[in-house]
TrEMBL record:
Protein name per the record: Carboxypeptidase B-like
Statement: the UniProt record of this protein carries the keyword Ribosomal protein: no
Gene name of the record: LOC112056154
Gene3D superfamilies in UniProt: Metallocarboxypeptidase-like, Zn peptidases
PANTHER family per record: FI02848P-RELATED, PROTEASE FAMILY M14 CARBOXYPEPTIDASE A,B
InterPro entries recorded: CARBOXYPEPT_ZN_1, M14A-like_propep, M14A_act_pep, Peptidase_M14
Name of one Pfam family that matches: Propep_M14
The entry's keywords: Carboxypeptidase, Disulfide bond, Hydrolase, Metal-binding, Metalloprotease, Protease, Signal, Zinc
Active site: E384
Similarity comment text for this entry: Belongs to the peptidase M14 family.
SUPFAM superfamilies with a match to the protein in the record: Protease propeptides/inhibitors (SSF54897), Zn-dependent exopeptidases (SSF53187)
Domain of life assignment: Eukaryota
Peptidase M14 domain span: 119-420
Amino acid sequence: MKVLLVFLFTLVCAKHELYEGWKSFFVKPSNVEQLNALRNMVHKFELDFISHPTVHTAAVVVVKPPHQHGFLTILAEEDIEHWIHVEDVKAQLAFDDQLIEAQHTTKRSIGTEGITYENYQPLEIIYEYLETTAQKYNETVTIVTPANSFEGRPIKYLKVSKDNFRSNKPVIFIDACIHAREWITIPAVTYAIHKLVENVTEPDLLENFDWILLPVVNADGYKYSYDVERLWRKTRSTDQHVLGTICPGVDGNRNYNFSWNSAGSGKNPCSDQFAGSKPFSEIETRVVDGILKEHIHKIALYISMHSFGSMILYPWGHDGTISKEESILHDAGIKMADEIFQSSTLQFPKYKVGNSAILLDYTASGASDDYTHSLGVPLTYTFELPGFDLDGSGFILNPKYIKQVSVDTWAGVVTGAREAGKIFTIT
Ligand SMILES: [Zn+2]
């Protein structure tokens, strides 16, 4: 028994050992020059931005011990406003674990009410929910497992439709968690499932549309982030370069086949923005591509859920040029943001809406919203859900806000779907 306890204690302590000595900072550039100075430090100091820095908006960046002095020196030289976010990342992650554990006492199962929104669920529970929902509502819900992940986990999504996609209705496609550590994105999608079949208050949404809901694109990454390395972002593939086992994984949202690897991606395979050895090198992005290709002429609205930042972003992100659909993209984006703001009872900032390259002063290629737009989907968005905690600490949105963020996001999706229905005709 004693040996077991020592072993368990060692496991708990070892979980965040990697983050010993790491710190995170808020940085708030006041002009484009400072923003560029920050970005120029990313490679040199192996900076990990948890949220996007923009002019006049504070972002969170994690810095490893050997680079903290150099990083702070340049911040001072460039006069970039900054302050500490987390003094001891390892301890904060342990604290985040306690928040989760405190909520977990009765929450590790699917109840009669479906999945709960009081905590972040392990992959197994999310998959159990998808399976049981498909069984329980088999008239409208079909579960599809198109492929296994790099490490062999099934990738699962739901098709929700009154007639199994037989009539020509516009399709709404929502995915989440291509970036492993963005946990809040998953309940935002399972809540859409809940509102389409379990607790229907907007019957027109299933009357007028067919839905594809893929809550965990990056199953390997989510599992790894959940169990081992909390701040993991990429996939877990090891076959992309010679150092694959030392630096596994690809940034899935740089891996799509549109203007691939031309901006905002890391050439260094150890970078968190590594675009892969070629477009669609990852099975996870090929699964999304397969869904897109199967339904392309019917997809009216595509949303990829990310966090954090309270933003609704749209193409073109790879170079900041204006889409032919700019006015409808912006108009529908603003309406979604307004609806989210109206829904929320929390003091999160109001969503900003815009072309991602312009809003962020940052171009990034190979992202899924650009790719789907290039295929002809008129309304394609990246949602950056709100976070962190309302008081700005920690690396997860406090579990007590999961339900509210899911409800608010759904309000935006409802509006987006109805807007898409107004403008979209199947050709
Ligand atoms: Zn993301």
